[in-house]
Write a structure and sequence with these properties.
Immunoglobulin-like, mainly beta, elongated, 0% helix, two-stranded antiparallel ribbon, 105 residues
Length: 105
């Protein structure tokens, strides 16, 4: 990331398998937008060094971080999930806000 990144945000995600099949989280894709509208895409294998396997009803919780050049922004993305039969699907991650406490946009 560029040297001008001045804020670092931590976020916690809980992934729950509400389906009927066991799945593995294979890849992640994040679209990160800062308060000035600059967009960065991040793609990678798994999350926090893991490719968790979730049986029906199980959850996986992790915390990660994101540097930004502004005091606020947002993230959205997808997880590529793989079933035991080898079929993949994209699990959508809704927008969530990254903001410095007490910052006004």
């Amino acid at each position: 990331m560029p040297e001008q990144d001045r804020w670092f945000f931590l976020y916690t995600v809980t992934i729950s398998n509400e389906g009927n099949e066991t799945v593995r989280l294979k890849n992640r894709h994040w679209v990160i937008t800062d308060g000035d509208g600059h967009v960065q895409e991040v793609r990678g294998s798994g999350v926090v060094g893991e490719q968790p396997v979730l049986k029906p009803g199980q959850s996986f919780k992790y915390t990660s971080g994101c540097p930004l050049r502004t005091a606020f922004g947002f993230m959205r993305g997808t997880y590529t999930m793989l079933t035991e039969d080898g079929e993949s699907f994209e699990a959508q991650i809704a927008d969530f806000e990254l903001s410095e406490p007490y910052a006004i946009n």
